[in-house]
Design brief:
The chain is an alpha+beta fold. The protein contains four helices and 15 strands. Bound molecules: 2-amino-4-trifluoromethylsulfanyl-butyric acid (MF3) and cobalt (II) ion.
Amino acid sequence: MIRIKTPDEIEKMRIAGGVVARTLDHLARSIVPGKTTTQDLTALAEHLLAQAGAAASFKGYRGYPSAICASVNQVVVHGIPGPLPLDTGDIVGIDLGAIVEGYHGDAAVTVPVGEISEEAGRLLRVTREALYKGIEQARPGRRVGDIGAAIQEYAERHGYSVVRDLVGHGIGRSMHEDPQVPNFGKHGHGPRLREGMTLAIEPMVNIGGYSTRTLDDHWTIVTKDGSLSAHFEHTVAITARGPDILTVGPDRGGISANG
Ligand code: MF3
Ligand code: CO
């Protein structure tokens, strides 16, 4: 069952979404290559969420131990923060969910650590653009498959593959609601999109094949072939005026590490 939100509910989600966006921006800018660990990032996230009067959506979710997921290089998603410093040349996906007054916001960015390779930079750019191709389809009358198809077409046109094992999702009072929002699919297929639906759209794009594998910690998902992977996510409301991205701050500068 897809839960339709009232305009008031969407405004509450925008508050949670703003906290998520500002926190992600702050985390990305805090990274010092060779020094900052992903544990530092999750500690900072917890501090910033508490300051904003928000709670972390992920911590404790099915036993997940942290406020953020931090997914480095060949890690697709759900990397658990740890004590190793991020290094120049790494890319790190930072995924954060926050809950304010009972409503969730969920977003992710993948950021460069210091100077990165041209290949990695291109992956980040294309994955971010693929997210916006998907968001562009989030309009009344379109279908869930239009979102996935637009993302898949864009990523594959650039020679990359789209992960099949994880998908985006409806979001609201729960972090995960119906419908599932695959980042692949066919135009004109799947549930019809209606005004008041709120979706977390989150493409995961690999340089190599789309297959993944879960590490022994039961969380960390890596590319099977060891290729680099990137992940970007926004929470979006479907409105009569088109897609309304809820995970942006008032200070909506670009999100990037080390300036
Ligand atoms: N953005 C991811 C999702 O929507 C993050 C969930 S991580 C978890 O599924 F730890 F909370 F599961
Ligand atoms: Co999500």
